[in-house]
Amino acid sequence: MEEEKIIDLQKLLFEQLKNHDISKVSLVDALADLLSISNDAVYRRIRGEKRLDLDELTLICTHFNVSFDALVGTKQQSLHFGYNPLDLNDAVVYKHYMNQLLESFTSLARANEKEVYFTAIDIPMFHFLPYTELTLFKVFSWSNSTGAFQGNFTEFCSMMKDDELIGIYNQLTEAYKVIPSVEIWTDRTFDTILRLIDYYFESGYFSSTAEALLLCSQLLEMINGINQWSTRGFKDELPGKVHYKLYLSGIELENNFVVMKREQTISCIIKLYTINSMVTTNKDFCNESMKWINNAMHKSTLISGASQKESFKFFNLLTQKVRYLIKRIESSNELFNASNPPY
Questions:
Q1: Is-contact 172 101, C-beta < 8 A?
Q2: Which end of the chain is more exposed for a tag (fewer CB within 10 A), N or C?
Q3: Low-confidence ranges of the chain (pLDDT < 50)
Q4: Tell me, which fold does domain 2-66 have in CATH?
């Protein structure tokens, strides 16, 4: 009986590894290199003819970031999270981080059954990605707030921006377009980016007024794009009409979560400092997070593909907020001030 349990656990491990963006043959090669055994020996372990020893199990779980506790269903207070430190003084480190994110969402995009849920205290990153300067500004503001980068926005863009990074942004954008998604926003979700642009403009971190106005124009394009998705109820004109559901919550969201469902697996990303994040595949935690998200959806208004009146009011409000900021920036030389901006 104990032997059967171990073999079942081993089969479950290899099933989880199949969810990685890697072919079966490549997986066998990777395991052979990792465990220093032949491909035939790997196949015998995959078929359950040979048990993995403790050292092999540890190597596999560590290399592929698989939680052993989640694998065996251990019930305990502590959870296993994956986390990669992000040093934004080094463009190579940032691109490595973004490549890991690309691998994860490309794998999700290729799955037959897939869906992603956002509880959006801040605008989900994927809406920024088609706009390179706007995306880099978001990264710049985080880097500056943590003290990692002390220069201005122009210098930061010069350090970070290149064809490789833009390529990663574009690939992530295309991946998100084919993933059915649900986003829960509030009236304040959009305000964070507006306050950041306002703050860094007033603090002299832009080389010119035009630089700040470019970000505002990209925000208006973003609003228009999200509005189109919301009006249709699905994303760009793609085969299968990938659904897009946008909810507006009347109460503040307490967590900034991303829950990814792929085939029979589920994972939860907890956003940290708006840019970085940590992720877990702990089944109990993920299910509890999904339960909370479903409850938030029930208490929210679906404004995509349905309530045109609510949708018009919402997107018109966002547009007016951006236009207010544009006026504020354009009037800066005339000492335009307002004690209570609408964001």
A1: yes
A2: N
A3: 1-2, 74-75, 335-336
A4: 434 Repressor (Amino-terminal Domain) (1.10.260)
Query: pLDDT, tens digit, for every residue of 180-235?
Result: 999 999 989 999 999 999 999 999 999 999 999 999 999 999 999 999 999 989 99
Contacts of residue 4, defined as CB under 8 A and 6 or more positions apart, other chains included, come to none
For β-strands 181-185 and 276-280, DSSP reports them as: unpaired
For the sheet with 300-302, list strands across it: 82-83, 276-280, 265-272, 257-262, 114-119, 181-185, 244-249, 300-302
Sequence-ordered strand ranges (E) for the chain: 82-83, 114-119, 181-185, 244-249, 257-262, 265-272, 276-280, 300-302
Q: What is the distance between the alpha carbons of residues 240 and 236, in angstroms, rounded to a whole number?
A: 10
**In this structure, are residues 108 and 279 in contact, taking their beta carbons and an 8 Å threshold?**
no
Decide the pairing of beta strands 181-185 and 114-119. parallel
Q: What pLDDT does residue 332 have?
A: 80
Report the candidate in 11, 19, 72 with the shortest Cα–Cα distance to residue 47: 11
pLDDT of the residue at 336: 47
132: number of Cβ within 10 Å: 17
CA distance 270 to 283: 15
DSSP type of residue 243: B
Candidates 262, 263, 267; CA nearest to 282 is 267
CB 233 within 8 A of CB 304: yes
Residue 163 phi, psi (nearest 5) = -65, -35
Pairing of strands 257-262, 265-272: antiparallel
> Where do the CATH 1.10.260 domains begin and end in the chain?
2-66
DSSP β-bridge partners for residue 267: 260
What is the reported pLDDT for 146? 76
- CA distances to 6, 12, 39, 69 from 2, rounded to whole Å, are 6, 15, 27, 18
Q: Residue with structure tokens 């954008």?
A: 173
